[in-house]
């Protein structure tokens, strides 16, 4: 990985500890802004789903099928983003995808049917998936170069951005139409990208050579394993990827169905309904800011198990509580439980297979986040939305069990 090695050498040569160099600080700050922007724009969209559902007159199954457009667009893009990052660099791809995300978030409010909504969500999902893969790739490289566990900070910024986006959505839900609100999000996204994008691109040119590093494929050996990763290591990476998928499923489900559950099943007003995801995102951010301390005190395995169990109990309240305050409390508990499972699972995969393990586990995790909402939609149509949301409880419990069973996997490679 000549690109990463040169970055490490440059940082070490300048200060002996990359976290203190001005270049590293600017790069870290710019990446943090993009993580926050990603969460802000996505949350701004999801809190307006009830209004857009009413606008197009769709049932839960039709809406679930339309929401599948986000998943399909993201999955298609994720399979291509690695090649784009190899050719143009993860920083450049992050900036381009951020522009596309900002432009595409305004489109759902223009749809007048479920099929039209699904088509525009393909574009939105493509931009969202590409941005997530690219900015996480950039962040993984920076974390490795700095040799400091700063990844939870990036994910905390995503959660804070989500909280801000959902909070703003709650404030304007009663006064702004979905079209006006999403146009406001688009303008904000473009302005933030114009401000932070040049920093990201400039620091890339200063720290990285023009020749892109080869990106390992899923399950391929990376530097962490010295090229010796075999079938056992690949199975271990998949295991941690499944843990990430189980928990990201819950995050995606709450993002796109939490507000509708509060409004439709508990008859919450637009403001409190939007506040559900804001509180969930705040709990995720708080949990991630405390993640380093938690890991130091409990260790990785106990953090996985405790987080999965906490999320399972919290989501059971969130889905089945008879009142809005109890449901909101459940959302908070679920957010605290889910907060650090994804970063820990991805990190453990990296211990086994290096960057290739990180990439595979991250892709599986984001797949869970994107596939959860349409699955919830179909289950809600067949049964009920509260019952469909209890699948989040089930998968969080599965993640806790898998986390305990995988307690030696990162060290044994099997």
UniProtKB/TrEMBL annotation:
<feature type="transmembrane region" description="Helical">
    <location>
        <begin position="56"/>
        <end position="76"/>
    </location>
</feature>
<feature type="transmembrane region" description="Helical">
    <location>
        <begin position="237"/>
        <end position="254"/>
    </location>
</feature>
<dbReference type="InterPro" id="IPR011701">
    <property type="entry name" value="MFS"/>
</dbReference>
<dbReference type="InterPro" id="IPR051788">
    <property type="entry name" value="MFS_Transporter"/>
</dbReference>
<feature type="domain" description="Major facilitator superfamily (MFS) profile">
    <location>
        <begin position="24"/>
        <end position="408"/>
    </location>
</feature>
<feature type="transmembrane region" description="Helical">
    <location>
        <begin position="274"/>
        <end position="291"/>
    </location>
</feature>
<feature type="transmembrane region" description="Helical">
    <location>
        <begin position="303"/>
        <end position="321"/>
    </location>
</feature>
<feature type="transmembrane region" description="Helical">
    <location>
        <begin position="113"/>
        <end position="135"/>
    </location>
</feature>
<dbReference type="InterPro" id="IPR036259">
    <property type="entry name" value="MFS_trans_sf"/>
</dbReference>
<feature type="transmembrane region" description="Helical">
    <location>
        <begin position="382"/>
        <end position="402"/>
    </location>
</feature>
<keyword id="KW-0812">Transmembrane</keyword>
<keyword id="KW-1133">Transmembrane helix</keyword>
<dbReference type="GO" id="GO:0022857">
    <property type="term" value="F:transmembrane transporter activity"/>
</dbReference>
<feature type="transmembrane region" description="Helical">
    <location>
        <begin position="358"/>
        <end position="376"/>
    </location>
</feature>
<feature type="region of interest" description="Disordered">
    <location>
        <begin position="207"/>
        <end position="228"/>
    </location>
</feature>
<dbReference type="Pfam" id="PF07690">
    <property type="entry name" value="MFS_1"/>
</dbReference>
<dbReference type="GO" id="GO:0005886">
    <property type="term" value="C:plasma membrane"/>
</dbReference>
<feature type="transmembrane region" description="Helical">
    <location>
        <begin position="88"/>
        <end position="107"/>
    </location>
</feature>
<keyword id="KW-0472">Membrane</keyword>
<feature type="compositionally biased region" description="Pro residues">
    <location>
        <begin position="211"/>
        <end position="221"/>
    </location>
</feature>
<feature type="transmembrane region" description="Helical">
    <location>
        <begin position="156"/>
        <end position="176"/>
    </location>
</feature>
<feature type="transmembrane region" description="Helical">
    <location>
        <begin position="327"/>
        <end position="346"/>
    </location>
</feature>
<dbReference type="InterPro" id="IPR020846">
    <property type="entry name" value="MFS_dom"/>
</dbReference>
<protein>
    <submittedName>
        <fullName>MFS transporter</fullName>
    </submittedName>
</protein>
<feature type="transmembrane region" description="Helical">
    <location>
        <begin position="29"/>
        <end position="50"/>
    </location>
</feature>
<feature type="transmembrane region" description="Helical">
    <location>
        <begin position="182"/>
        <end position="201"/>
    </location>
</feature>
């Amino acid at each position: 990985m000549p690109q990463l090695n040169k970055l490490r050498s440059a940082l070490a040569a300048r200060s002996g500890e990359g976290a203190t160099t001005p270049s590293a600080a600017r790069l870290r700050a710019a990446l943090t802004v993009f993580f926050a922007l990603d969460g802000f724009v996505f949350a701004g969209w999801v809190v307006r789903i009830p209004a857009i559902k009413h606008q197009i007159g769709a049932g839960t199954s039709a809406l679930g099928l339309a929401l599948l457009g986000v998943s399909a667009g993201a999955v298609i893009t994720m399979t291509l983003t690695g090649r784009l990052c190899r050719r143009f660099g993860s920083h450049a791809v992050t900036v381009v995808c951020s522009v596309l995300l900002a432009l595409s978030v305004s489109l759902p409010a223009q749809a007048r049917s479920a099929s039209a909504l699904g088509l525009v969500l393909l574009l939105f999902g493509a931009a969202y998936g590409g941005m997530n893969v690219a900015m996480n790739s950039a962040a993984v490289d920076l974390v490795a170069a700095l040799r400091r566990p700063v990844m939870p900070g990036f994910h905390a910024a995503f959660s804070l951005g989500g909280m801000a986006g959902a909070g703003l959505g709650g404030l304007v839900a009663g006064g702004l139409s979905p079209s006006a609100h999403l146009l406001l999000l688009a303008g904000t996204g473009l302005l933030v990208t114009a401000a932070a994008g040049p920093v990201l691109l400039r620091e890339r040119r200063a720290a990285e050579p023009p020749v892109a590093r080869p990106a390992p494929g899923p399950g391929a050996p990376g530097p962490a394993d010295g090229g010796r990763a075999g079938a056992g290591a690949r199975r271990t990476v998949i295991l941690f990827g499944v843990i990430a998928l189980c928990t990201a499923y819950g995050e995606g489900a709450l993002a796109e169905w939490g507000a509708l559950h509060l409004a439709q099943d508990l008859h919450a007003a637009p403001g409190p309904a939007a506040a559900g995801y804001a509180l969930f995102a705040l709990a995720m951010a708080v949990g991630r800011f405390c993640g380093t301390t938690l890991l130091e005190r409990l260790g990785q395995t106990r953090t996985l198990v405790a987080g999965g169990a906490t999320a399972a109990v919290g989501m059971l309240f969130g889905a089945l509580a008879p009142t809005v305050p109890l449901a909101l409390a459940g959302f908070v508990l679920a957010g605290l439980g889910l907060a650090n499972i994804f970063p820990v699972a991805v990190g453990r995969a990296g211990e086994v297979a290096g960057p290739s393990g990180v990439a595979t586990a991250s892709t599986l995790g984001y797949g869970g986040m994107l596939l959860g909402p349409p699955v919830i939609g179909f289950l809600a149509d067949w049964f009920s939305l509260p019952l469909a949301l209890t699948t989040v409880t089930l998968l969080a419990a599965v993640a806790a069990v898998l986390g305990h069973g995988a307690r030696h996997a990162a060290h044994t490679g099997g």
